[in-house]
Give the backbone structure.
Amino acid sequence: MFDKVLVANRGEIAVRVMRACEELGIDTVAVYSEADKDSGHVRYADEAYNVGPARAADSYLDHEAVIETAEKADADAIHPGYGFLAENAEFAGKVEDTEGVKWIGPSADSMQQLGEKTHARKTMREADVPIVPGTTDPVEDPAEVEEFGDEHGYPVAIKAEGGGGGRGMKVVRSADEAEDQLESAKREGEAYFDNDNVYLERYLENPRHIEVQIIADHHGNVRHLGERDCSLQRRHQKVIEEGPSPALTDELREQIAEAARRGADAAGYYNAGTFEFLVEEDEDREDGELLGPDANFYFLEVNTRIQVEHTVTEELTDIDIVKWQIRVAQDEELGFSQDEVDLEGHAMEFRINAENAADDFAPATGGKLATYDPPGGIGVRLDDALRQGDELVTDYDSMVAKLIVHGSDREECIVRSQRALAEYDIEGIPTIIPFHRLMLEDDAFVSGTHTTKYLDHTLDQERIAEAQEKWGTKTESPAGDDEEVVEREFTVEVNGKRFEVDLEERGAAAIPAGNAGGSSGGQKPQPAGGDSGGSDAGSSAADAEGESVTAEMQGTILDVKVSEGDEVASGDVVCVLEAMKMENDVVADRGGTVTQVAVGEGDSVDMGDVLIVLE
């Protein structure tokens, strides 16, 4: 058994992995950015190391910093969680090449073959797994998109090779959109996955999203652990996941599961992975009618890592997938046969995101968990890392926790979920708990007839606003929290390892502590266009004469579309801001001449920061 595992991630998934390690008698190492210095995964780990500033590219995505930390901490394995470096074959290969450090996941070669979508499509086609009509080689020219659309019809999906969860995917509905959407998909692929290769698929308008959990060892044993239905999505982001699917017959689910097993065998895959499929919905299907073995299903992609929603499968099978990831990495053989995999009852996972669903799911821009009182009781599981009093970190994703509910059947699971969500008390930040409660009363969801397009195209948005009004909680801290509290932190890092001394004073004036804590291993993100030293760069944009275009939310600048001296019209896009996994075009409210550009590509910005000044 490993002695010490570094978890190259943050938040609830880092704590989830650390809990599995603790039960196996393995010590844990956390890595953290400057923004996460007080986060829950740092508190939970046995050791914690700073790997850089808030910007993910300079901390959590820094290959060398993470591997050097593993060596420094004398960790003998790295678990990547999900997101960040979890599906980065280059990073996995570097870990495999590091003496004394094991990679907890599939091999870098498998990740290359299956994680990059064009390779995966070739492998699945050779394994007789049905695939959506599309390309198997990267696309570079908008003319290729137009030719594909002419042949297969519009809409066409442009997808990043390393993408997933809607990141790096753009839909082209006509030829005149091809150039802009291709550029956008390539830009997202480069920004999020260090890979700007994209491919094309026929875009299915109204499918269900079904995925199969796979676990395989180094001895040729491949097991599927049943399917999950992830059809309730918003802009390709899963919101509620459940298993088993309420829409499939046993015959169809077995066909899909066996296709996943064939694909894993063909790729020589081992460790945990998820094979995702799209199932064409029968628009004439009535309540209670299921999709049978004649329904069309197509391979979508392989996620070569643990999934956010792995918890659903764990509740159905009573198999700890994370523990088996660790055991497989140590060359253990799977301890159960396919026939011994039984799915008991029904389970659902609710992503508790810090977003206001009534405001187009706008992410919170900050806040403090003034109240954090999670639910309990039989069949209720919570995966989280935050605690009452914690400040919300908004530099990464919006997930606060995952609520997982299990029942003897879907009806009991829904009723139990209603009870658990009603008990879940969070104040100080907005969450989508009211939205979840709405869905559990929604006819389409309850009947299981919803598809991946239901939230974006069918659901009455007024109902979301009504739910927020009915069940939303306070987003400001109680008045009693206004007492002046001075917190002085002294942090010493010896060879990057964190040691802290905290001092809290109430009713006292703040005492500047400077940089007495020693080296931080990085610096906090800069204000838009400025620096940490208070130079003129940061203040000049805010003080410049003219009309300022400001950031409407916290995020990262992906692209700047204008330069000083350019003429812009009202409605023109001046830059592209990424926030919570989505690209947002920042537009000028009026026309004018650009007199100042206060940001550059890759800059982190806060809500209200000046981006562009017009005259």
Confidence is low (pLDDT under 50) at residues 477-481, 508-543. The radius of gyration is 24 Å.
